Amino acid sequence: MLHSPLVNADAATDADGARVIAPRRHRAWPVVAVLAGVIVFQMLLSVFSIGVLSAVRAYVGGESLYSKGQKDAQHYLLDFLEFRREDDFRRFSSALAVPLGDRAAREALERAQPDTEAARAGFLAGGNDLADIDGLIWLFRWFHDSPLMADAIARWTAGDAAIMQMRARAEAAHARFKADPDAPAASDLRMRTTDLNNQLTMLAHAFSASLSAASREAQWWLLSTNLTAAALLGAGGLGFVRRSLRQRAAAEVEIRRRQELLRQLLDSMADAVLTMDADGRIVLFNRAAETIFRARMADSLGGSISTLVAPGSRELLDRLRREPQGLPDTAAAVAPLHEVRCLRSDGAEFPAEMSISRLETEDGKLVTIILRDVSEKELAREERQARHALEASSRAKTAFLSRMSHELRTPLNAVLGFARLMTMDTGRPLDNQNMLRVGHIETAGAHLLALVNDILDLSRIESGEMALSLEAVDIAPVAAEALSVIMQLAHDGGVLLDAGLAVDAQSTEAAPRMLVIADRVRLRQVLINVLSNAVKYTPRDGRITLRVRATDNICELSVADTGVGMTPEQLSHLFEPFNRLGAERSAIEGTGIGLVLTRHLVALMGGELAIVSVRGQGTVATVSLQRRHGGEVPVVRSDVAAPSPARGRATLEVLYAEDNEVNVELVRQVAHLRPEVSLRVALSGSMALQMAHACPPRLMLVDMQLGDMTGIELARLLRSDPVTAGIRFVALSADALPEQIDAALRNGFDEYLTKPINFVEILRVFAAHSDAE
Fold it and tell me: What pTM was computed for the model?
């Protein structure tokens, strides 16, 4: 991947009139950084200066409080010596608390390990403002040995010593007067007290003078330091700027040299190379780009990159350009390829492969694109994608149908299977009423099974894979079966169902019986769909009539109702899948695929479905089929045979792998019809493996979906083990797709039985393997 070294540059025009890359002025951030450093340093120095001066001011203020306390104490002491009043001594002690507090603070800070909390309490007792106390402590700790504080602290210490002398003499006089109230006054004590007061006054003035001199000296030093620092940093910043400018001038010369080398290299490339700045403006456009985009370099430089990209790809390009994480750094060896649609200068769109990378510079981000026209490659890829999409669609449809077949047939297996077992149970026979009820269950279950099969077959119809069994079918019994299924629905809806099957025979045949070319099951489903639609859309007390009209070659079955009917607009959308024509907003149930499937089925049987409807008057649906002359009607037999007597005492070991307990119970009861069958059950694939290895059966019935594995996987594992390689496998599954059946037979299964279980078939399998022993 090539990355452009064109940094710090703007588009300009050379002597030939072509756009070139000219150096940009360097940004001023180093100068700004130096100046900011100077400002920050001076600000910190100013804060420090203010802190020092503020602390000195606090000490001066504290000295005033100290001096006032000392004066008040001396006044109260003289009154006490004169009048010997206890209140004067208490006032003396209270006034003395201020200098004593300052003394306690000083002694706490002069310790080897300064006690700041004790010092804070002392200064607070000395009447100092709480906001000034931290400054007092800080200045004392850091400058107590410096000229700023040393002399003042010495005078402070001497003053404290004088205060303590005054306190000691006052307490001695207080004790003497308390012991002997009539003791003579001590004139020498009064004189010494006055001398101490004068001494303290001089010390206080000297303390203030020392602090004032130190404050002025500190101010001078701090101001000098600020000015010196500013001068030094300013000179350093100026030198740094001059050096940067010299380096920038040398770098610009080098940049121009590299630009020329880069231009020669880029012009020799076969792929288009474009570089754009942070605003999307093109700053580099090589000769290959001129060829691919059919645009002149002079016209393209400085223009927007979006003019070369089709609208559908501009969002991708903008995202890659603006998000740094979407691009590799310039040190990357390979940049990812992106497929985009580009535009030539004449507006023609073409496919391209694009690799894009960024180059971070001091002036911003440059993005470089290498692009290749892949029009021919795109055609080949589209053909390949179309083929893959078709194959994926076919696989997805097969998987969906397989799963739906399994999920829908499994509960029907239990419904139909247990209903048939109830009718076959000779030990506990049903009475006539319950036998009739079970018959209704079987009829409804068979109808539901037919519906399931029709829904699954809709995909086969649309893909052309649907196969029907066309034969000569007598229309009368099929119509009677459809009417029996619909009769209860009509009764519940309060609709009169004309089941007379009136025949209007216009044929020259002697017998009115009519045979048509049809698939019996599909024909019954067609009639059920048409009749059920008529019942659903006919209001209570309405009427539905089924009529059969025959000619020499055509048989027409018409279902007329007195329902709500349809408008011409609704009729135009009648055969659109899942379009219920507004009925979805009513309480009428449905899916919108019944008539679509019905028309397909009728067409596959060589017939035609016609719908005539008038809004408010009703609808007539007519199914037209080809007649069959002289054919025999197949005899409909029950698919459940009575159990045959046992052939002997030999036991057939059968292992049934099934994860549905209802299906297990159904097969177990069917196995009871054959005393020679010994049935074991495994509820998962892993359990089936363990049971088969522990005691290999003669026969295994295997469901295709076992939860932890498929039936095919289970058979492969058992076939690969010499201990279980001789087991015979019969599939028993709700998945009835031909693809699944073929896959099972190719992978070692002898037979494939589908659910709902056909008792005749499963009993035949038991008998065949019992005979094989």
Answer: 0.35
